[in-house]
Amino acid sequence: MITLEDLTKVFPAPGGGDPVVALDGIDLEVGAGQIHGIVGRSGAGKSTLIRCLTGLEKPTRGSVKIDGTDIAALDGPELRAARREIGMVFQHANLLDSRTAARNIGHPLEIAGIGREKRAARVSELVDLVGLGGREHNHPAQLSGGQIQRVGIARGLAAEPKVLLCDEPTSALDPATTRQILALIRDLRDRLGITVLMITHEMSVVREICDSVTLLEDGRVVQSGALADVASDPHGPLSSELIPLPPAPTGISARVVDCDYGADPENPRAVATSEELVRIAEGYGARAQIVAGTIETIAGRQVGRVQLALRNEDDTPITEKGLAEYLRDLESRGVVAKEAAS
């Protein structure tokens, strides 16, 4: 559905100097019906990527294909027609205060010249679809933040797009409302079959809703793949951000080991649960206690980052030799393990 090939955007430096490479040879494919997350810190290239996807920026090199149509190669009426295949949802819905929720939803249809009767029917359908029944005649000042975002989502769906681009759609919402909006987007994907591109800096959003994820850094793709694969790859840069490790308690009389694990389908000995880490330690005459950890189940696969306190059976810290053997064993089982800094 969305295919980016060698997407590159270079901006000339104001007043001369070195040009700014905002996007540097990005290759990415998002399948139809997927919810794909784009994450990255400020300056990673996320905003430029959105502008290239919507045709607001022409890439310096490469192609931007939506359902086989190269947006980058279009101009004028053809580009405007292609943009109708792409709905947009923003962090702030920026509704027109003088219009009701229904009239805000219908605004893009009005601009497109859709007749009043057909427009009213589509708006009514969208009001029900996003759960705004009974609020369609309210003005923005009479709506909650979550309801305003529902209006924004409905407006983005008004032209029946194939792709919905969501740019930080929950950043301004409280946690409970965020969960409701994410559930709505997932439900809309399931019911309408649309492809969703979710631009966000919130890893909780990625864990909650995305099927796949891409990390951008300095305009390049650093890591990309199915969410379960990315989260369970302890060597990848996204794993530690998706599965953060809470601080461990202090004053522990033991050797403390950090362990990142996720079942590796290509390794029959791979560790799949935190309990296995404890059992393996017993083979080296040590007792392992989980003193801190974050464990998530993503796409049916347990992924975790834990800290283990290792002691001998007599409660003395495990020996240097025993620790080294334990760490080597874990490495052979796909675990990234190292002794924690004291």
UniProtKB/TrEMBL annotation:
Question: What start and end residues bound the annotated signal peptide?
Answer: none
Q: Which residues form a coiled coil?
A: none
- Per UniProt, which keywords does this protein have? Amino-acid transport, ATP-binding, Cell membrane, Membrane, Nucleotide-binding, Translocase, Transport
Q: Which PROSITE patterns match?
A: ABC_TRANSPORTER_1, ABC_TRANSPORTER_2
State if Translocase is listed as a keyword: yes
Q: Which GO terms describe its biological process?
A: amino acid transport
Where do the ABC transporter domain residues begin and end?
A: 2-243
Does the record carry rRNA processing as a key word?
no
Annotated GO MF terms: ATP binding; ATP hydrolysis activity
Q: Which PANTHER family match?
A: AMINO ACID IMPORT ATP-BINDING PROTEIN, METHIONINE IMPORT ATP-BINDING PROTEIN METN
What's the name of the protein? Methionine ABC transporter ATP-binding protein
